[in-house]
Design brief:
single chain; alpha+beta; three-stranded antiparallel sheet; two-stranded antiparallel sheet; about 40% strand
């Protein structure tokens, strides 16, 4: 899984804060949502890790499946 960040309103320097395979411990379920949780660098500075959490509803997961052509 690659997590890359950059400015939202202009073209600028992008920074990869995570580049590794998704692992079982990253994926959980909570209240019917699929939750991705991982620790990665922050936007600024070096050395501090931040915990990121992405919650995907069933509709979100359906949209992802449709986008990649999976059933």
């Amino acid at each position: 899984m690659l997590v890359d960040i950059g400015p939202a309103k202009r073209i600028g320097t992008r920074k990869s804060i995570l580049d590794r395979p998704l692992i079982d411990e990253d994926v959980t379920s909570f209240n019917g949502e699929t939750v991705l949780t991982f620790c990665a660098d922050g936007v600024h500075g070096v050395g501090a890790l931040y915990r990121y959490e992405l919650r995907l509803t069933t509709a979100d997961m359906d949209l992802l499946r449709a986008a990649v052509g999976s059933a």
